[in-house]
Every structure is written in structure tokens, then in C-alpha cells.
């Protein structure tokens, strides 16, 4: 009985011979934001069941430095029910999302200890971007296709330019006298997949240009997008096979012995079933907050004077990615660029090759016409970002100048979306998009 | 005395005493040789008494039956029969396509034998004889779109399909080994391909920047003709680079296992005769193909662009494709790359500008401008391939991505409905002036 309890509460000692899952970049980066929970307070509570529950609670809720943002969730729910300003609901929900996203990744890591490395890697790969996925699916169900496209595009851009840029910059400044190298092969595979995704985005755009110049007569962008999405999902599955099975050694981070953080006991701190229950619960709360966000985004845009596209492309991803971002910077400081790159590029690849085509397929099932055609400016930004990142990473070394350039690119893109896509001319663009969708419906 | 020696030489029974320089095996020759069978010279021919008849039969056996795809030779007479008796036009199309595959392979075999005379130049040029002949026939019938599409399709098929399947199969077969190849030759090819892409993109960009009016067409024509001359000069330079000054970059490293008897099995005179004959048959089949492509397209409900860009090159390249995959399995990536990239470069830098020049002579308005979709696909394909090959190593993921890109492009051309596909297809110069768009 006692052993069951201690096992459930993660009191596994080093005697268990579970295969330690190889630490992927994601798990290592997230672990930088954890705090060791202090068991002293809780041990005073006499009742054993209560003590278990409290330990669990403490581990999950308070186990991160971002825990202070948790009250924002309650405030957001209160604001929604008592009809405070919609912009307040939006802002508070945004703040509440940040710690939730981090906790979800913590929980998937804990569950990964029980399921073994392969399934764990799979879980991490899929659940790593659950925030973006939930926001996207909710926006789809409310038929806000533009919000979906912009938020996913913003995630990719934020990972490629912002997270990578700040990591390289901070890492470069902190290690001015050392040479910073990283393993090219992993970066190469990710950039290659991103290029394939870019290709699938550019083709519908080319179709539109061709239609405008009278070269073609119908606009099958929807069928092209759906076919492209299927191809991208197959490519993602192949990438998972590649990463988790046949070429694992390329992606596993190499452990140094002089790093004391790594010598911590990497035992799971919560049981499998409680982890699962927490995960389900947190997902529900994320869904709730996302619904608030998607519902109030236009109101926030109006009252703050920023365009919907700016909010979706710049603000949302910064919040959703906050935890990963911090982790990537910390590891860059310690000159472990492989991990930072794994986080940033891996997230970008997942969103580009998994979340985006999944949304197209889900929209197909729901009868909504989402296609892969992001508009000209957005696709252009995406193309140039991918090419710039690929070029930056191609020689396997880094210095702070590379980080600055990527960061400045992100700033320029942000400026573009503030100034060019103002709320007034955005309405025109959205209307044009809707009419072309209508004509597509008639034409098909 | 003399006649015996002459006869021996003509039938390739040279002894080791002759000091003919052993020609370097280029990637093409090695790849095609994988589809050959050693002819069993002794089968039943010893009984044939007359020497002349024996010679002819050996020759015949070597040339016609010397390949594994020789059963497809039967398609040729069927195609001719179908044409004369007026069977369904799609049948003629399909049979001519099938008959082209072994012919293309035999032509490359024959040009190898002839290499003793004029060196690698002939192999380089004749390597894409099929595409060249189809293009010239289409030009002659003024089907400019078919020319452009089929050449574009050849380039895309070599860059993405052949390269992709080779890297994929090679990666899967050699999961535990590291696959490396020599970057230098790949780099040169990619560079030349980029030059070709630039020449294709410039007419399109100048159109986009709003030069309206009828003068635009003639200026694009002039631009295309000038670019073609430049491309041909680039090709000459490339040949000089490849065959003279930097040979060592392109020579494949030979192991002993490939040291089969690479002596000529067919004599010079007879191989020349066979080559002429086969070219004539290829010309005949190409004429059938170009003539029946629209009917096949209408009957099957598939756009002409898909047939020209995807179907034709797959057939024309079938032999090279098989060879490239086989060498990738054996972890000899340099050869697979040499085949795929080399073919793509040859078509882009040699066949395309040659067609423009031939069109110039024939007073046909062929230019280098492809439509937006095709230029975009070509550009991105070259970028993706350049990126894939830039680090000199390979794994199956690279091949898979190239293959996926090819699938996406094929789907695009499958659903493409353009005015030229639906409207007037007899090539009377009606191409892109019909500019109606939906809604």
C-alpha cells in the first residue's frame, strides 16, 4: 500500500530500470523554467490523502516560475461573466494562456516517462503546440479563417525569427570569446521540410496570379490546397519516423558531465493517471480561454487600434510561445545551441507541416473552405524568413550578428503589419477574400 | 589477311594489343549499362554456316535483344498498324509512348559505342535524343505549348522524380551507412540550372512589370533569342569544362566489379547504321505522339499540360530512371546524381535554347516564356534541389521531400484548366490571346 502510494507520487528511486527517454530539445528547454517543489510545508499536513493531493497540486500548479500568471485565468473568467470590457477579457485570457501552455508541456513530459521514448517523443511532438491547435480549431468553427491563417503564420514567423534571433543574440553576447557551433544536420532537415511547406503555400498563390493575368480560367485553389495538405501530413509522418526511429541519433542532445542541472534525478514527479487527468483539465481550460480570445479579438482590435492581423501574427504567438522562448534563450546562454535550435526550428516545422494541414483537413470535414493561400505579403514574408533562416544556419556556427539580423527582420515584419494592414484597409482585404471565396463556391 | 582483320575489328573482336584509349565511363554509360544483358553469342548461332548471316544475326541480337525492356519493342509495329488502320487515336498515343522507351535506351547504348570516334560530346548530345526529336516535331507542327511543356516536364522529372526516388531508395537501402557524394559536380550543375531559370523568369517578370501593348511580344521574342544564344555558349563552356579541363570532377570512381568487358560489341559502321535507323523510328513515333496528344487528352479528360509535363518525360526517362535507382541502392550516389542532374542541365541549357534557335530558323515564334505557374514551379524546384544537395550527404528524408514536391506539382497540372487546354488545340497560333477569367 505504501509502495503504491509512493510510486503514485513519483517516489521512484533509481532502482527502477525504466528506459530513460532521450532528452529532446523541448523537454530540456522547458525544464529550465521549473522549480523544485519544497516538500516541507506539505509534510506538516497529517492526513495522508490530503497530503498526496496537496503535493500533486503544488507540483503541478506551483512548479513553474510563471505560476504568478495563473490568477489571470480566474480574472478572465470573471471579466467574461460580469461583462467587463471585451478588451480586458482578451488581455487577461492572453496572460492566462502562458502558464497553461508551459504546464501542458511539463505534463506531456511526465507522461512520456511512463510511455517510453518513442511514444513520448510522439506525444511531445503532437502536444507541443496544443495551444496553437486549439485556437486554430476554435477560430475555424467560428468561421474566422483569417484569424486561423494569421495566427499559424505568426507562430512560424515567431519561432523562426523571434525565438531563434533572440537566442542567437543572447548566446552570442554571452559567449563572445568562445566559438559557437551546432550540428547542421538537424537544422538542415527542418529547413528542408519548411521549404516543402513553403512550396505548398506558394502554389495557390501562383494560381491566383495566373488567373489574374488570364492564363487560366478556373481557380482550383481549394483542391490544390487539400491535396497539398495531405502531402504535407504524409511528409510529417515521414519526419516523425525519421526523427524518432531511424535517425534518432541526429536529434538526441548530447549530455556533458560538467552540467549539474542534468545530474538531477529525472524521475517523474506525478503519477501517470494524475498526469493524464491534469492534462485533460488543462486542455479544457485552454479551450475556454481560447474561445474568449477568438470571440473578443475584433473588439480588442477596435479598442486598441491595432489590426486583427497584427494581433494574430505578432501578439498571440508571443504569448503562446513564451515558455519555449525563455527556455531557448537560457540554453543559448549556456552555449548549448543545439537545444535552442531544436526548440525553435522543431516548433516551426511542426506548425508548418502538421498544424496547418490539419486545419485544412478539419475545415474540409467541417465544410469550411480554408485553403493554403495566405495573401501575397504574408507568403512573401514567410518565404523570405525561411530562406534567411536557412542561409543563416547553413554553416554550422553562430555569432550575435546573426541573431540581431533575424530579430530586426522580425521587427520589420511587425512594423509592416502595424502600418500596412490598418483596421480600415484590412476590412477591404477581408471583403475581397470573402467575395473570391463566394465566386469559388459558384465556380466549383 | 586483310579482310579477316577488318571483319574482326568491325565485329569488335579486338585483342588487348590494340591501343585504343579506354574511354572514361561517364555516369550515363554506367547507369544505362545496368539495363543490359550480356548477349549469349553462342546460342544457336554456331550452326549458321554463312559468315555474313552469322554476323548479321549477332549484330541483331546484340542491338535488339540486348536490353531487359526489349519486350516493349513489339509496341512499335502495333503503333504503326494502329496508325495505318485508323484505330482510336489514344491507342496510337499509348503504343507510341511504350515503343519510345526501349528505343531511347538503345540509342544511348549505340552512342556509347560510337564514343571511340568523337568522345563524350556525342554521348552528351545524344543522351536526350528523344526529347530533342519530339520537340522539333512539335515545333514543325507549330505546337509551341507542347514543346515548352514537354521540355519543362523533362527538367522537373529529372530534378525531382528521378533524383527523389534515387535518394529515397538509396537512403532506405543504406539506413546504417553514411551516404556522401561529391559536391563539386552537383554545384556546377545547380549553377547552370539557375542560369536557365533566370532566362525563363526574365520574360515573365518583364510582362508582370506592366509592359502592355503588342510590342511586348516581339521584345520578349528578341530577349528569348538572345538568351538562347547565351545559353548555348554556356553549354559549350560546360562541355569544355566537363570533358577537358576538369575531367576529374566528373569521372566516376571505378571499382573492379564494374570492369566488365566494355569493348565495343557492335562495330562502328553497323552502329552508325543502327543509330540512323533508330532515329528514323523515333521520329516516326514522335510524329504520332505529337499528332495524337490532343485527342488523347480529350478522350481521357486529362489536360494536355499534364500529359506533356508528367506522362511524356516519365516514359522518355524510364531507362535512366531505373539505372539511377539501381546505383543509389549500391550507395554510388555520384552516378545517380550525375545522371539526374546532368540530364536536367542538358535539357535546360542545350535542348531548350536549341529549340528556340530552330524555331527562329523555321520562322516559328518560340520563346522562353513559360506561364506563371510553370516558372514558379521550376524556380522552387531548383531552389529545393540546391538546398538538398548543398551539404554533400544524403538520407531518405531528402528523397522523400523531393518526391512529395513532384507529387504536388503533378496534382497542380492535373487540375489546371487553361484556355489553351479547352479551346482551340490545333496549334494555329491561338495560344494565350484568349484571356477570359472566372466570374
Gist?
The complex is a heterodimer of chains A (about 450) and B (about 450). Chain A contains 19 helices and 2 strands.
Descriptive keywords:
heterodimer; A: 444 residues; mainly alpha; two-stranded antiparallel sheet; 75% helix; disordered N terminus; B: 439 residues; two-stranded antiparallel ribbon; 19 helices; 2 strands
Discrete helix count of chain B: 19
How many distinct beta strands of chain B? 2
Distance between the amino and carboxyl termini of chain A: 66 Å
Secondary-structure element string of chain A: HHHHHHHHHEHHHHHHHHEHH
Distance between the termini of chain B: 83 Å
Q: What percentage of residues of chain B falls in helices of 4 or more residues?
A: over 70%
From the helix content, strand content and strand pairing of chain A, which structural class follows?
mainly alpha
* Low confidence ranges of chain A: 1-22, 256-265
Low-confidence stretches of chain B: 8-24, 114-120, 254-262, 421-439
Major beta sheet, strand line-up of chain B: 1-2
Most strands sheet of chain B = 2 strands, antiparallel
Main sheet: strands, sense, barrel of chain A: 2 strands, antiparallel
- The amount of beta strand of chain A, in percent, is under 5%
| Helix/strand class of chain B | mainly alpha
Spatial order of strands in the largest sheet of chain A = 1-2
Could you spell the SSE succession of chain B in H and E letters? HHHHHHHHHEHHHHHHHHEHH
What is the average of the pLDDT values of chain B?
75
Radius of gyration of chain B: 23 Å
Describe the protein in words.
The complex is a heterodimer of chains A (444) and B (439). By secondary structure, chain A is mainly alpha-helical. Helices cover 75% and strands 1% of the residues of chain A. Chain A has a two-stranded antiparallel sheet with strand order 1-2. In chain A, α5 packs across α6 (86-115). Chain A is globular, with a radius of gyration of 23 Å. Residues 1-22 and 256-265 of chain A have low confidence and may be disordered. With 439 residues, chain B is mainly alpha-helical. In chain B, 70% of the residues lie in helices and 1% in strands. Chain B has a two-stranded antiparallel ribbon with strand order 1-2. Residues 8-24, 114-120, 254-262 and 421-439 of chain B have low confidence and may be disordered. Chain A binds chain B through residues 184-185, 188-189, 191-193, 195-196, 198-200, 202-203, 206-207, 209-220, 223-224, 227-228, 231-232, 234-235, 238-239, 242, 246-247, 390, 394, 439, 442-443, and chain B through 175, 207-208, 371-373, 376-377, 380, 383-384, 387-388, 390-391, 393, 395-398, 400-401, 404-405, 407-409, 411-412, 415-419, 422, 432, 435-439.
Amino acid at each position: 500500500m505504501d509502495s503504491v502510494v509512493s510510486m503514485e507520487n513519483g517516489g521512484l528511486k533509481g532502482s527502477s530500470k525504466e528506459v530513460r527517454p532521450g532528452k529532446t530539445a523541448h523537454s530540456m528547454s522547458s525544464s529550465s523554467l521549473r522549480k523544485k517543489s519544497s516538500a516541507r510545508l506539505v509534510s506538516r499536513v497529517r492526513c495522508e490523502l490530503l497530503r498526496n493531493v496537496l503535493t500533486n497540486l503544488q507540483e503541478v500548479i506551483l512548479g513553474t516560475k510563471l505560476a504568478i500568471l495563473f490568477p489571470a485565468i480566474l480574472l478572465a473568467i470573471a471579466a467574461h461573466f460580469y461583462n467587463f470590457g471585451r478588451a480586458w477579457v482578451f488581455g487577461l485570457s492572453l496572460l492566462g494562456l502562458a502558464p497553461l501552455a508551459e504546464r501542458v508541456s511539463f505534463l506531456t513530459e511526465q507522461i512520456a516517462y511512463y510511455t517510453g521514448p518513442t511514444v513520448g517523443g510522439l506525444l511531445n511532438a503532437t502536444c507541443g503546440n496544443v495551444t496553437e491547435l486549439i485556437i486554430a480549431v476554435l477560430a475555424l468553427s467560428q468561421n474566422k479563417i483569417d484569424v486561423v491563417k494569421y495566427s499559424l503564420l505568426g507562430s512560424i514567423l515567431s519561432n523562426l525569427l523571434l525565438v531563434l534571433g533572440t537566442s542567437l543574440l543572447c548566446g552570442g553576447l554571452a559567449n563572445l570569446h568562445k566559438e559557437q557551433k551546432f550540428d547542421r544536420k538537424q537544422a538542415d532537415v527542418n529547413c528542408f521540410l519548411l521549404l516543402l511547406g513553403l512550396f505548398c503555400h506558394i502554389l495557390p498563390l501562383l494560381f491566383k496570379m495566373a488567373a489574374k493575368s488570364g492564363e487560366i480560367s478556373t481557380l482550383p485553389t481549394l483542391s490544390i490546397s487539400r491535396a497539398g495538405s495531405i502531402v504535407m501530413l504524409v511528409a510529417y509522418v515521414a519526419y516523425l519516423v525519421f526523427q524518432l526511429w531511424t535517425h534518432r541519433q541526429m536529434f538526441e542532445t548530447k549530455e556533458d558531465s560538467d552540467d549539474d542541472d542534468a545530474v538531477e534525478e529525472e524521475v517523474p514527479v506525478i503519477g501517470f493517471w494524475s498526469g493524464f487527468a491534469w492534462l485533460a483539465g488543462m486542455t479544457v481550460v485552454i479551450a475556454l480561454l481560447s474561445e474568449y480570445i477568438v470571440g473578443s479579438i475584433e473588439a480588442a482590435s477596435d479598442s486598441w487600434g491595432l489590426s486583427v492581423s497584427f494581433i494574430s501574427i505578432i501578439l498571440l504567438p508571443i504569448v503562446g510561445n513564451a515558455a519555449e522562448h525563455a527556455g531557448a534563450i537560457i540554453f543559448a546562454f549556456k552555449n548549448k545551441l543545439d537545444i535552442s535550435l531544436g526548440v525553435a526550428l522543431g516548433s516551426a516545422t511542426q506548425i508548418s507541416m502538421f498544424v496547418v494541414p490539419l486545419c485544412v483537413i478539419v475545415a474540409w470535414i467541417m465544410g469550411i473552405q480554408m485553403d493554403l493561400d495566405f495573401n501575397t505579403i504574408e507568403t512573401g514574408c514567410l518565404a523570405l524568413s525561411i530562406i534567411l533562416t536557412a542561409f543563416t544556419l547553413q554553416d554550422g556556427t553562430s555569432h550575435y550578428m546573426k541573431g540581431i539580423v533575424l530579430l530586426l527582420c522580425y521587427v520589420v515584419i511587425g512594423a509592416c503589419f502595424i502600418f500596412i494592414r490598418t483596421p480600415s484597409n484590412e476590412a477591404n482585404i477581408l471583403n475581397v477574400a470573402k467575395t473570391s471565396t463566394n465566386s469559388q463556391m459558384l465556380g466549383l | 589477311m586483310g579482310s579477316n582483320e577488318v571483319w574482326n575489328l568491325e565485329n569488335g573482336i579486338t585483342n588487348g594489343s590494340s591501343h585504343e584509349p579506354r574511354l572514361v565511363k561517364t555516369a550515363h554509360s554506367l547507369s544505362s549499362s545496368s539495363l543490359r544483358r550480356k548477349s549469349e553469342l553462342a546460342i544457336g548461332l554456331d550452326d549458321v554456316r554463312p559468315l555474313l548471316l552469322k554476323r548479321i544475326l549477332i549484330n541483331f541480337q546484340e542491338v535488339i535483344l540486348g536490353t531487359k525492356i526489349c519486350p516493349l519493342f513489339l509496341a512499335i509495329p502495333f503503333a504503326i498498324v494502329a496508325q495505318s488502320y485508323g484505330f482510336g487515336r489514344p491507342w496510337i498515343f499509348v503504343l507510341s509512348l511504350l515503343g519510345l522507351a526501349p528505343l531511347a535506351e538503345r540509342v544511348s547504348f549505340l552512342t556509347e559505342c560510337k564514343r571511340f570516334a568523337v568522345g563524350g560530346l556525342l554521348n552528351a548530345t545524344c543522351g536526350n535524343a528523344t526529347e530533342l526529336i519530339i520537340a522539333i516535331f512539335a515545333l514543325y507542327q507549330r505546337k509551341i505549348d507542347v514543346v515548352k511543356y514537354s521540355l519543362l516536364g523533362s527538367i522537373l522529372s529529372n530534378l525531382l522524380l528521378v533524383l527523389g526516388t534515387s535518394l529515397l531508395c538509396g537512403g532506405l537501402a543504406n539506413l546504417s551507412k553514411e551516404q556522401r557524394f561529391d559536391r563539386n559536380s552537383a554545384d556546377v550543375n545547380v549553377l547552370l540550372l539557375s542560369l536557365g531559370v533566370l532566362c525563363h523568369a526574365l520574360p515573365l517578370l518583364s510582362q508582370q512589370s506592366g509592359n502592355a501593348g503588342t510590342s511586348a511580344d516581339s521584345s520578349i521574342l528578341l530577349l528569348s533569342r538572345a538568351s538562347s544564344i547565351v545559353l548555348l555558349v554556356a553549354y559549350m563552356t560546360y562541355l569544355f569544362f566537363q570533358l577537358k579541363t576538369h575531367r576529374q570532377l566528373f569521372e566516376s570512381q571505378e571499382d573492379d566489379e564494374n570492369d566488365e568487358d566494355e569493348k565495343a560489341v557492335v562495330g562502328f559502321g553497323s552502329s552508325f547504321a543502327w543509330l540512323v535507323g533508330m532515329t528514323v523510328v523515333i521520329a516516326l513515333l514522335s510524329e504520332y505522339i505529337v499528332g495524337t496528344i490532343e485527342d488523347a487528352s480529350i478522350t481521357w479528360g486529362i489536360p494536355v499540360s499534364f500529359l506533356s509535363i508528367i506522362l511524356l518525360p516519365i516514359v522518355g526517362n524510364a531507362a535512366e530512371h531505373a539505372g539511377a535507382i539501381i546505383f543509389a541502392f549500391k550507395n554510388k550516389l555520384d552516378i545517380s546524381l550525375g545522371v539526374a542532374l546532368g540530364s536536367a542541365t542538358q535539357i535546360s541549357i542545350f535542348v531548350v535554347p536549341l529549340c528556340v534557335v530552330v524555331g527562329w530558323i523555321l520562322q516559328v515564334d518560340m520563346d522562353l516564356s513559360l506561364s506563371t505557374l510553370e516558372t514558379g514551379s521550376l524556380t522552387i524546384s531548383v531552389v529545393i534541389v540546391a538546398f538538398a544537395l548543398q551539404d554533400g550527404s544524403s538520407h531518405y528524408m531528402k528523397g522523400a521531400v523531393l518526391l512529395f514536391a513532384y507529387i504536388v506539382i503533378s496534382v497542380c497540372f492535373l487540375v489546371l484548366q487553361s484556355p489553351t487546354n479547352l479551346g482551340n488545340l490545333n496549334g494555329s497560333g491561338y495560344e494565350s490571346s484568349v484571356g477570359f477569367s472566372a466570374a
